[in-house]
Design brief:
The strands form three sheets. This protein has a five-stranded mixed beta sheet with strand order 1-5-3-4-2. The protein has a three-stranded antiparallel beta sheet with strand order 7-8-9. A two-stranded parallel sheet has the order 6-10. The protein has helices at 27-38, 40-52, 78-88, 95-111, 129-139, 153-164, 169-179, 185-190, 196-203, 206-212, 227-241, 254-262, 320-331, 338-360, 377-390, 396-407, 415-423, 431-450, and strands spanning 2-8, 12-13, 60-64, 72-76, 119-125, 166-167, 214-217, 220-225, 275-281, 289-290. Helix 13 packs antiparallel against helix 14 (338-360) and helix 14 packs parallel to helix 18. Helices cover 49% and strands 10% of the residues. It has 18 helices and ten strands. With 453 residues, it is an alpha/beta fold. The chain folds into three domains: 2-145, no CATH class; 153-290, no CATH class; 302-450, no CATH class. A hairpin with a 2-residue loop joins strand 7 (214-217) and strand 8 (220-225).
Length: 453
């Protein structure tokens, strides 16, 4: 039988047989395992809890401990429980493995001492098997409708529109097509299945918008062409995107998208001469406020930044060692520790390249690790750039720029410069040059790690 009971955080024990992982033998191992796997996700959850509190619709589920009658084993909600424990005691985080994360939790604790959660309402089960059926419903997928049915991207945006009062570019477009008399019913019927990300990718391209005869102003799509003309082009896009045989690689890069719109049938291309009586907006009949499009930030002036790597855009790095180095480079003051940053920067780039080579099994040998392959740094860089270019992971311009810079001995991205950071006892790096180097490589590194699982 289940009942609600208030329990102290200190009396909650992390499940050593958490279904997420292989069983462990102690509380420390169970906590360490979650920290190792979740890292900054735990910190993000901690911030959300501090601001909003715990989700009242999803209480932590527990059962009495068989060993210590004063304690309770967590059946569901181990991640939240670990986060609450870390907020109350950041020293649970291993300094050697996750020093930066520990520092962030300590600051969060110091800044919000009055908001720390000491006890919470839990669902207490006498027998853990009673909770199993509910845990399965939450985590085991849809189970033909009995379980949790995840929202699609389009459904998420509809929620944000209704609750938060903002409408995305893609959703404005979908609503226009739904309400248009010029859109065939077969297209309208497929709109709920349209992948928002693909539509966003196209509408974010200036060349595509120019062909469609639309522009984005303060988050609102608008046009000077007749609505019928605009709908022609948008209908063709939807027709393609909902076609199961359509290959998304056709619209991946800027060059791909340009080629794609050039293949449009003539009767699907809006006529630029067919002007509307006055400019109109996709949201003209809606009270919903549009999503403000982010203003493109110029690359920072080296004199205005003391850290090699800015906080945004954040790169998701799957390799734990490389991820740790990445976050250290975001934390170290390059103006004070220039040599240390230069050497660590070189290590970060090469380990990233190694990770990509091993992920895609390119280079001289797919059986050995990249570090043992016998190929040098420049050769590895060439392999990766050529592969990214051939697979259309990155724009050709980005790849050409990286290759040219690496081969240029006088460039700050040049291979001799990278070697000198580590091997030349007479060469001293300069902080502004290091920052410029990162700024020149940032887009490349984002794309590289986006293509590593």
């Amino acid at each position: 039988m289940a009942k609600t009971q208030k329990i102290k955080i200190s009396d909650l024990q992390i499940n050593t047989e958490n279904y997420r992982y292989e069983p462990v033998s102690s509380q420390k191992e169970a906590i360490d395992l979650l920290i190792d796997e979740q890292k900054d996700k735990l910190y993000n959850l901690a911030e959300h809890i501090i601001i909003h509190g715990l989700n009242p619709n999803d209480m932590i589920q527990i059962t009495p401990s068989n060993i210590d009658k004063t304690k309770y084993n967590v059946l569901e909600g181990n991640r939240r429980t670990v986060t609450l424990k870390l907020l109350n005691n950041p020293d649970l985080i291993d300094q050697n493995k996750h020093g930066i994360l520990k520092k962030k939790f300590k600051k969060l604790q110091d800044d919000h001492k009055t908001k720390l959660v000491k006890e919470i309402d839990c669902i207490l089960y006498d027998n853990p098997t009673e909770a199993d059926k509910w845990i399965k419903l939450k985590h085991a997928g849809q189970i033909e409708g009995a379980g949790t049915v995840a929202w699609t991207s389009q459904q998420i945006q509809r929620f944000e529109e209704k609750v938060e009062g903002k409408s995305s570019i893609a959703l404005q477009t979908i609503k226009l097509l739904q309400n248009s008399q010029d859109v065939p019913n077969v297209i309208k019927n497929n709109l709920p299945d349209l992948k928002i990300t693909n539509l966003d990718r196209l509408l974010s391209d200036p060349a595509v918008r120019e062909m469609l005869g639309v522009e984005i102003n303060n988050g609102i799509i608008q046009s000077e062409l007749n609505e019928k003309e605009v709908v022609k082009g948008l209908t063709q896009i939807v027709k393609d995107l909902v076609n199961p045989k359509f290959n998304v690689k056709k619209i991946y890069s800027k060059e791909d998208r340009k080629e794609y719109i050039n293949t449009f049938p003539k009767n699907s291309k809006p006529l630029a001469t067919e002007k509307a009586e006055k400019p109109w907006q996709f949201t003209a009949n809606s009270n919903i406020a549009p999503v403000k499009q982010p203003v493109k930030k110029t690359k920072p002036n080296p004199k205005d930044r003391k850290k090699l790597i800015p906080k945004n855009p954040a790169i998701k790095i799957s390799n734990s060692k490389v991820n740790s180095i990445y976050h250290e480079l975001m934390d170290i003051d390059v103006t004070k520790h220039t040599n240390a940053v230069a050497v660590l920067f070189r290590v970060f780039i090469e380990l990233s390249i190694d990770s990509y080579i091993e992920e895609h099994k390119v280079g001289n040998s797919s059986s050995l690790s990249s570090a043992k392959s016998g190929i040098n740094f420049q050769q590895k860089m060439d392999i990766v750039v050529n592969h990214m270019d051939s697979k259309k992971f990155a724009d050709t311009a980005i790849c050409k720029g990286i290759k040219a810079a690496i081969k240029d001995k006088n460039d700050i991205l040049g291979i001799d410069t990278w070697h000198a950071y580590v091997h030349n006892n007479r060469f001293s790096p300069k902080a502004p040059n290091l920052i410029i180097t990162w700024d020149n490589m940032q887009d490349f590194m984002v794309i590289l790690w986006n293509n590593i699982k």
